[in-house]
Amino acid sequence: MSRDIPPKDSTVIKLNVGGITYHTTYGTLKMSPYFRQLLFNGTAGLDKLENGEILIDRDGYLFNRILEYLRCSEVSDNELEELRNEAEFYMLREMIECIDNMLVQRSYSVKKEYMLTTLEELKQLFSLSSKNENVGIDPLYKDYELISVVDYAELKLKCTRHNEFISECQKKDRRDCHQHVQLDGTYQVSKLLVAKKLDTNPERAQ
């Protein structure tokens, strides 16, 4: 009794995916259960185009990224929803899981609350929502993550009416100080760009 023998890994496979030609090897394609099934008996019994290419009626542009994943197990971070549909067609379970994780991380990134602040301001903000008066640096990193340090030049605006900086007048809730503003130079400021961490545990989020 004859036994079905799949192609060798070095066998060159010519594909036409959505009108785009791809040349690769069976060794690359066999990572996909879809292609293992399709090519299990080789290419002799398959319907081909006149130039010998096997027609796959899927998105030819996205197949380039499917092929990239089959070669190096990497997924680029764009068009993930569309790429996930293609990964499902080619039965790439691990690729689907990777895309799902990337989509979750993207969702969290969009929901993050960003803030430009100093460490002292951040500690003060944290202490306002904490019952513990002795707030250290470590608890801050449980709730906030540091994105970057931003250096910039800030204008010094002085209130000539009270002979103080406008920021101090605002803290004291003084009125009409904006009518007595005078530029008093500039100074370099370094602040922290931070993001409030999201609770990814659904049980704690409820």
How many distinct helices?
9
How is the biggest beta sheet arranged? 4 strands, antiparallel
How far apart, in Å, are the first and last alpha carbons? 62 Å
- CATH-derived architecture of the largest domain: 2-Layer Sandwich
Question: What is the H/E string?
Answer: EEHHEHHHEHHEEHEH
CATH top level assignment of the largest domain: Alpha Beta
Oligomer: single chain
Q: Average pLDDT value?
A: 80
Organism: Mucor saturninus
Protein name: BTB domain-containing protein
Pfam families: BTB_2
InterPro entries: BACURD1-3, BTB/POZ_dom, SKP1/BTB/POZ_sf, T1-type_BTB
Structural features, described:
The chain is of the alpha+beta class. Helices cover 38% and strands 26% of the residues. It folds into 2 domains: 99 residues, Potassium Channel Kv1.1, Chain A (2-Layer Sandwich); 93 residues, no CATH class. The chain is built from 9 helices and 7 strands. The protein has a 4-stranded antiparallel beta sheet with strand order 4-7-5-6. Strands 2-1-3 form a 3-stranded mixed beta sheet. It is rod-shaped. The termini are far apart.
Set down the secondary structure blueprint.
Elements: E1 12-17, E2 20-25, H1 26-29, H2 33-38, E3 54-56, H3 60-72, H4 80-89, H5 93-111, E4 113-117, H6 119-128, H7 137-143, E5 144-159, E6 164-165, H8 166-171, E7 181-196, H9 202-205
Helix pairs in contact: 3-4, 4-5
Structure, briefly:
The protein is α+β, with helices and mostly antiparallel strands. It contains 9 helices and 7 strands.
Descriptive keywords:
single chain; alpha+beta; 3-stranded mixed β-sheet; 7 strands; rod-shaped; disordered C terminus
